[in-house]
Amino acid sequence: MSTAFSAPALKAFGAALLTMLSLDAIWLTTMLEPVYRPVLGAWMRPQPDLGAALAFYLLYNAGVVALAVAPAWTQPGARLGSVAARGAALGLIAYGTYDLTNQATLQGWPWSLTLIDLAWGTTLTALCATTAWLASRPRAASPLTPKGPQA
Question: Per the domain annotation, does 122 fall within a domain?
């Protein structure tokens, strides 16, 4: 299960990507006008750069699988909570890198936007890691499966 293109990795990636695309679409369509446009209005494009967006979603979700989900595949007794916590930590770090850099370098960048974005990135990435783990976790053998040669 350790290769990048194994069945569990592909299932995890697909689940994380679908989760992020779905939830981020809801987030952006509901929060763009009240939260982001008042702050970023002059910097916003009339239409998003879909190539850049695609690159972000592919790269980010590969990171979710590699850094939050895949380590649990080799941990005996790995729990969903540990995967979600790694996802949350990754989201906080990744979104923090963006928002805190803007906070430090852009005049007028509001702390309220930084805090909202940090909360969203942390929550979103934890949810992506969670669905990725549920789609790809090792399954325990069925109690009906014989464990060895029958007597």
Answer: yes
Cβ neighbours of residue 40 closer than 8 Å, sequence gap 6 or more: none
Copy the structure tokens of residue 81: 């909570």
Looking up tokens 């939050």, which residue turns up?
68
Residue 21: the pLDDT is 98
Residue 128 resides in a domain: yes
Burial class (CB in 10 A: 0-12, 13-18, 19+), 102: middle
Query: Does residue 123 belong to any structural domain of this protein?
Result: yes
Instruction: Determine the residue type at 42.
Output: A
Q: Above 90 in pLDDT, residue 60? A: yes
Cα distance between residue 56 and residue 70, in whole Å: 20
Quick check: is 124 in a domain?
Answer: yes
